[in-house]
User: What shape does this take?
Amino acid sequence: MHCGKTMAKVIIVGAGASGIACATRLIAKGFDVTILEAENRIGGRIHSVHFGGTNVDLGAQWIHGEKGNVVYEMVENLNLTDYPKSSTYSNMSFFTSTGTMLDTKLTNQLYEIVENILEESDLASEHKGTLREYFDSKYTKQVNAKLGNENKELLNAAEFIRNWFSKFYLCMDPAEDLAQVSVNSLVKYRECEGNHLVHWKTNGFASFFNVLLENNPKSFLTEHVLLNKEVIKIVWDQTGDSKDRGKVKLFCADSSRFTADHVILTVSIGVLKETYQTLFKPSLPLCKINCLETIPMGTCQKIIIKFPNKWWPDEVKDFSFVWTDEDKKTLPKEFPFGPIRNERSWLEDIFGFYTVDSDPNILLGWLVGSMVKEVELLSDELLMNASLFLLRKFAGEIYKISEPSEIIRSKWGTNPHFLGTYSYVGVEMEAREATREDLAKPLVVDGKEVVLFAGEATHSCYFSTVHGAVESGWREADRLIERSYKSRRHKVVIVGAGIAGLAAATKLLENKIDDFLLLEAQEEAGGRIKTVQIGNKPIDLGAQWMHGKSNPLYDLAKEKQLISDEMSEEGLGLYVRSNGKIVDKFMVDKVAFKVGQILEGCSKLVSENSGCTALGTILEQHFFRYLEEHVPDESEAEVMKELYDWHVRFQVIDNSCKDLSKLSAKRWADYVCLDDEAHANMKHGYQSLVQLLLDGLPDNQVKFNTEVTKISFSPQSEIKLDLLAGGSIVCEHLILTPSLGVLKEFQGLSNVLPESLMVNIANMGFASICKVYLFYDRKWWGDSQGFQLLWSSDHNATWQRHITGFDEVFNHENTLMTWVGGDSVREVERLPAEEVGKQCTELLRTFLPNYSVPEPMEVIRTQWLSNPFIKGSYSHITPECDDCNAGINALKQPVLVDGVPRILLAGEAIHSSHYSTTHGAYESGLDQAQVLCDFLLENKPAI
Assistant: This one.
């Protein structure tokens, strides 16, 4: 792995989540790593402390989301976390400063409006300006539209909630006011799917470090961490002295000094903002200064209070405070202690107290706004008195509130080693076009990354979170790891560890060609194969069935006993019209037979239609001609039209195209499945095949999280691959296996592929489909085997209109699956999974009035189109391929330079008769690798 050379000396500044994540990855690869930490502890803004007989978090407290959240994924099976039983920050109880409560039904309606506005990120992306402007405008309009503007009580309540929300949101984006937050915050921050308040069972967020350090924190601290080391100067561009050229020198407040090949800064952006003018020598580039000056770091404060007894009832999970204008005016006189600014008391900015799961007698209060740092300097006694004053003012008329016994609070804003809690998207940041990507760019000397930047503020979409901090640490570690490959040369490089890339690597090994490297941009192998476990049973989000027995992939799966005896079918169950009526099976079979008959003969019918090669046109013309000639009854014809429409939707999904006008009728017969085994299930999911192939490859020849950004030829006709993480790899031969969607959009590919090949890539079709799995606690549909939906012609066009039906799922008896195709895929991928499930439920209830359709327990929907490393599902042949006589066969041809096959394409889109399938991808990988093997073995130098 280390190529026989000493790995670089790396110093990481900061032992928070980002720094430790970075260190563990580098250490695992053999780097010499030291962490310098200014505090007397590790953890950074993760700080779990013992308080009141339990552990509480003064910093990071929750795991925000599950799917795609690296923190959750690392701990989900370790029994360390739980879901919220206490406050969920929804369905809240609002107490007024006059000592009364607002009507819960009304506040729930108003809060739902708030949530809807926050979830409409597509609308927010069209708006320019501040979050305050955007929210106030949307909120007023939606309140008036949904609840009216006549009722004075309602309008007062709406204003209460608007004012409360303007403080509550500052916990997420900790500005002093919503007017400082850009509306783009709703767009640029990406939420992970799942529960956003997953909490730690016993020891707080500090539990995560045991996992990150593989339960060996003591040796890590002893060997790699130096505490109380505050770095005050970084000399990063050595000149004159050749011995130190390319090295970085660090000077600490205790006069200690360190030298490193690379320095990775993981300190908060608050510290960098405060110190950058004196910290760096020479000064930073203007682009970096722009980022540090304008990417904001905010502060909010936690106030944690322990009571000797739980004086509130179990059903009350929170005390959310809303103020009358009159009470706000008199507050500075009523409680004249602590900061007052512009005749406004700091107590207004404590917007509530909330129960916690770690202890039933603890309340957690939140302070936001412009006076947080001043309040951090107040005594604990004053803060406890102020908190008790508020609780009694708002809830004292309803509950007998006891004296608190203990208090603890955070002080991130005034701690010189943090100077804030986390970053957000600010208005000035947007105005000056500062980006987190620019903040993350390393400082480079002589082509070498000498100072690198990590931490939550450098993450493009998960800023302000621990998982964002962890990912940023890994990102910079990977940048240096990849740099160690900068001078690596290989005979062959394969790009893409999907089934085609794995097959190609396997074929190379079979031919005793072992000087190859397999690069994968994602964190795991499989490409468009992805299996997840639900209830300890596999669910395939990508490839699902083995299509046909007559192929080597089926043979391999059969040999390894991976194929189930149970087959699946599509289009089973009841065919239901939008009025709830069920169509008899004879009619269903009759239309299916006729559509199948037309499809079978469509390539012959092309010449009869004046050369038109679009499948949609051929199918429509011949089916409606059949109706006109053979079905005089209008009501019967209407039903048959609806069944025909179902087949159109089915073919759009089955062929992964936008619509049937994008599908070639002339080439319809090119796809071959020689037997009826079209839906064979995998016992353990399709990933089992991926793992089987991966296990057969040497670990050090497969690189994950390695994105290729540029491909070019050297003067010697070798191929250079530039990597996103830095560095490059040179090879003599390249096998490209990314999806056709990626190839279509890969910048600069025309510089290495001939124009004829680029034309073929452009003309081949590649679109997407979306799977939606609905998991229930019972099989509410009985023996129906599923439902196929028949739409009337006058039905409003929505994304649900592209659904064919809901089918049963192999090995999951309480689950239904549906497919979405066409232009609706992008919309469905953008919707939260819960909303997709909600709309599917409404759809089922409309079509099935005689069934009691419950809400699903869980919803999973795929997102292949929005995955930047996939960009869709699978390929199809278009009429444009007919027009220029182009297509798959042309894509199979190697790119020759002076008679040498330098670049070959592989993947499902490269197989002339099995395109769109995994076995087609597998066969393509084998075939193209064999072409290369034949050349290399034939031209093997004589010994």
